[in-house]
Specification:
With about 200 residues, the protein is mainly alpha-helical. Helices cover about 75% and strands about 0% of the residues. The chain has one domain (about 5-204). It is built from twelve helices and no strands.
Length: about 200
């Protein structure tokens, strides 16, 4: 159910990724849903969702990696760093077509490059929260593949039961995301209306 909002935001990340507060709350939602997926053996709905979304999650990770790779490549060109340009020269298609084992290796390399050049990338609008969103999406891909995730937001606490997770996710949507998303109500009305449609799915 909460996946409707997560999927909608991932599919329209270009509309909100420049707004740090939205990215922050999206990361919190990612984290809570990852905990649901880790309970998948105990919850049939999560189990079915994981099975259906392995390929979709790879696509989401590849799209985000492509955007960040473009920025890394530009930084490499501006700074006359030919090695960085070469390592970041991978398109969405290049990434998505990789066998999953190679895909995981390459995504790790991109994350390492982002960490290494984080300070310089801030000049291009890349934020810690944006990178964490990318890491969380990658973690979801790992979980969907039956692998342990490797990145957690700093505020992660001990594993919670499903009832607690769902309550926190509901509070997050009602009291944080729903409010901050209103900054796009006039600027991006179609996106805003789509978000509300996804929220109706959650509420039902």
């Amino acid at each position: 159910m909460f996946e409707a909002v997560q999927t909608y935001l991932d599919a329209n990340s270009n509309k909100w990724e420049a707004i740090n507060k939205i990215v922050q709350h999206k990361n919190e939602l990612n984290e809570l849903l990852l905990q649901v997926y880790e309970h998948k053996d105990a919850q049939e709905e999560a189990k079915v969702y994981v099975h259906q979304n392995k390929v979709l999650q790879k696509k989401i990770v590849a799209e985000k990696a492509d955007i960040l790779n473009d920025i890394l490549e530009v930084h490499g060109e501006v700074s006359n760093n030919d090695e960085l340009k070469s390592r970041a020269d991978k398109s969405f298609t290049d990434l998505f077509r990789l066998p999953n084992t190679d895909f995981i290796t390459v995504i790790h390399e991109i994350i390492d490059l982002l960490s290494l050049h984080l300070e310089a990338l801030a000049d291009y609008g890349v934020t810690d929260n944006q990178i964490q969103d990318f890491k969380n999406s990658f973690d979801a891909f790992l979980v969907f593949r039956g692998l342990p995730r490797q990145y957690r937001i700093k505020e992660t606490r001990a594993t919670k039961d499903l009832e607690t997770i769902f309550k926190e996710a509901t509070d997050l949507l009602n009291n944080k995301l729903d409010k901050v998303i209103k900054v796009l109500k006039r600027k991006e009305p179609s996106f805003y209306n789509g978000y509300n449609a996804a929220r109706v799915i959650v509420d039902n």
